[in-house]
Amino acid sequence: MTSMDFDRDFEPAYGHAIAIGSHVRRMTVPNGGPFTFHGTNSYIVGHGDVAVIDPGPDDPEHIEAILRATTGERIRHIIITHTHRDHSPGAALLKARTGATLLGEGSHRLARPLATGETHMLDASGDMEFVPDRKLADGDRIDGDGWSLTAIATPGHAANHLAFALEGTPLLFSGDHVMKWATTIVAPPDGAMADYMASLDRLAERPETIYLPGHGGPVEDAPAFVRGLKAHRRMREAAIVDRIGRGDRTISDVVAAIYRDTPLALHGAAALSVFAHVEDLVARGKLRAPEGVTLHGVFEPA
How far apart, in whole angstroms, are the C-alpha atoms of residue 274 and residue 233? Predict the structure, then answer.
């Protein structure tokens, strides 16, 4: 199993707006953790009349920092890449202070219905209260003062995930779909591996070369990085099929084998990732699930 060349060198500069090119400023929420790295990145797009992408969790101090950074400007749009609680709850706080329009693909939803007896392991991570003022579909544009964003449907990490291309620049806001510090969590039923892989293909075909992610620093030479992510996922997939072929029958068995160098505290997240791959592999006829595809099911070679 080869590994991606991830980059964890990042200075969050909490409370301060960091200029990224002429049209974008980044502000990082101090909500760091195992799945958020140093924290969630909020982006201010434009000058004068501006948009804020992903104002983050319910953190009044971060909202105050955004307002200070935009003193003398007008926040007209609040744009959400997806409705996980580290990205979207701050939108309500910022709207209350500015009257800005909330934009996103829609309210939080699962990638598929729950199976009989299945529980949603990431239920607490979903922001069930977010409702956009304007729903965005693939290809929709958001026009501002001297800038335009185009929405790109990128489901996988979340069913309602969107990326945004800043027209006339090499920049794309990739949310949690592509990040330079680590692989993205794809955990059914909140997300779906088949959707995630198809969305990687969409981005790899686009012209943008620099991604600004929801956590960590910019992704440079982005199309090549995306192709590497897809190859990494395919190798992980092959390792799972190999372990099942060798006699492993459960996701916990597979995790113990292929994540043996990963801290035990992260094995729960690893199990959800393997579950996403197994769900996709069964759907494609690469594995069999005699008792049904569940996190604690039994799996066999096809």
Answer: 10
